[in-house]
Amino acid sequence: MKPSEIINLGNGLEIHFCLDAADTNAQFTLFKCVIHPNAKVPAAHYHDNFDETLYGLKGSLTLSVDDQVVQLGPGDHYFIKRGRVHSFYNNTDETVEILAYANPGVFTSNYFKDILGIISAAGPPDMARLKEVMLQYGLVPVAN
Questions:
Q1: Percent of the chain's residues with pLDDT above 70
Q2: Quick one: CA dihedral 78, 3, 109, 48, positive or negative?
Q3: Which PANTHER family match (predicted)?
Q4: Which of 15, 61, 114, 136 is 20 to 30 Å from 21 at the Cα level?
Q5: 67-75 CB contacts, 8 Å cutoff, 24+ apart
């Protein structure tokens, strides 16, 4: 068993990749998200080529899916079918942890590595490049 690959985005969001597409013959990816209070989280988006299931491990995450807002706590789960616009945030004083399962395994740790490269560059992030990377990995940003 290999250890999780940890990608610290430096903005209150950590991604712990458990199983990447290469580990599962592209059947799924599995990763834990650690979301600190007031973390900068991805813009509202939808997935055009994979579904995502979230499972609460610690704390309470606010999840917005289409016009529905739900709280995801320990032991709770939520299935996000491709095409459904969603976003999430931690508006508590506690760290939140969730497990994310993406199926099929087309969404990989390289997405977060590419995002890290953009947000850690000098100056403000290149928003056009961020959008380009999101689209490359099947995430379609939606203006609020």
A1: 97
A2: negative
A3: PUTATIVE (AFU_ORTHOLOGUE AFUA_8G07350)-RELATED
A4: 61
A5: 72/98
Distance CA 40, CA 28 (A): 25
**What is 5-108's CATH topology?**
Jelly Rolls (2.60.120)
- Whether the per-residue pLDDT at 144 is higher than 70: the answer is no
Cβ atoms of 122 and 70 within 8 Å: the answer is no
Distance of CA 130 to the CA centre of its chain: 14
Contact 48, 138 (CB under 8 A): yes
**CA-CA distance, 103 to 52, in Å (whole number)?**
6
What average pLDDT does range 97-101 have in this prediction? 98
SS3 content of the chain, % helix, strand, coil (to 5): 15, 40, 45
pLDDT confidence of residue 125: 82
What is the total residue count of the chain? 144
Task: Map tokens 């900068």 to a residue.
Answer: 40
Rg of the chain over Cα atoms, rounded to whole angstroms, equals: 14
Closest CA to 119 of 41, 37, 32, 38: 41
What mean pLDDT value characterizes the chain?
A: 92
pLDDT band (50, 70, 90) for residue 122: confident
